[in-house]
Design brief:
It is built from eight helices and seven strands. With 208 residues, it is α/β, with parallel strands linked by helices. Strands 2-3-4-1-5-7-6 form a seven-stranded mixed sheet, sandwiched between helices. Helix 3 crosses helix 7 and helix 7 runs antiparallel to helix 8. The termini are far apart.
Length: 208
């Protein structure tokens, strides 16, 4: 490797070269191998898919979460997987937002939704937490619900009396797992549009 190659690598990886973080993209879920592949970890799965597409790993411990700094469509973004467990997701999100001085409009949250069938997406500009504890935590700790989010369908409970915690912490069958793979890839395309300010296009193309 020549001195010019070394200089180029240093320059490319310097903070000035990387630029200021413009978006915080938070995928919600629970840490730990026992939760891998569960319905509640749909947000984690989307970020892992996106990171893989970008040739990155979400493994730097910051802001009570695992993070990666990436460039998406020319925008510098922080990928954030809170390690606070779902119900305290806001603790990680608010730390990252405050550090980078990110407004709610530049926060994108990805989470599971039991009201949507597996593989379906719903992109929203803003809205209430709708009973989702991860969104509730973010709304309460940021003091705002004015942030876009991508909801990933994981399917309804088999019957009304089925325990909700057991359902969201359960894993997908083979057929639904394939649908979730497709929905994660579609969610990545949504994120790429949203950081360009094309949320309407994302909604029109991917909302179910």
């Amino acid at each position: 490797m020549s001195i010019f190659d070394i200089f180029d690598r240093i320059s490319t990886n310097s903070p000035a070269a990387r630029g200021k973080i413009e978006y915080v993209i938070a995928g919600l879920g629970n840490p730990g191998m026992e939760y891998d592949g569960t319905r509640h970890n749909a947000g984690f799965n989307v970020l892992d898919t996106l990171a893989a597409q970008l040739g990155e790993s979400i493994d730097r411990l910051r802001f009570k979460g695992k993070t990666a700094e990436v460039t998406i469509e020319g925008k510098r973004c922080l990928l954030l997987k809170p390690t606070t467990y779902m119900n305290n997701s806001g603790e990680a999100v608010v730390q990252a937002m405050e550090f980078y001085k990110i407004e709610p409009s530049n926060l994108i949250v990805i989470c599971d939704d039991i009201s949507l069938d597996p593989g379906k997406l719903r992109i929203k500009r803003k809205g209430s937490h709708g009973g989702h504890n991860g969104l509730r935590s973010i709304c309460e700790l940021t003091g705002s619900d004015d942030f876009p989010r991508i909801k990933i369908g994981v399917g309804k409970k088999p019957h009304p009396d089925y325990d909700l915690a057991k359902w969201v912490l359960g894993k997908f069958g083979k057929e639904d797992a394939e649908k979730m793979k497709t929905s994660s890839e579609n969610a990545c395309e949504c994120i790429k549009l949203m950081v360009q300010g094309k949320i309407d296009e994302a909604m029109n193309k991917y909302n179910s």
